[in-house]
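User: Could you check the structure of this?
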Amino acid sequence: MDKGVIVATPKLKATCVDASLIHEAAIGKIAGEQITKLMTLGLNEQEAEQKIIEGFLR
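Assistant: Sure, the predicted structure tokens are below.
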């Protein structure tokens, strides 16, 4: 126990200049196309946002 080491650093690495990466722990805006898709299925914008949030929290 005296020599234990823990490293818990979120890290992404890409060797391709065209790569687009995001860590799963990142928090950002809800993608507009997700809301649009749910609205085409009959939900209003607020309901669509709530469904996306519920899905994320599962």
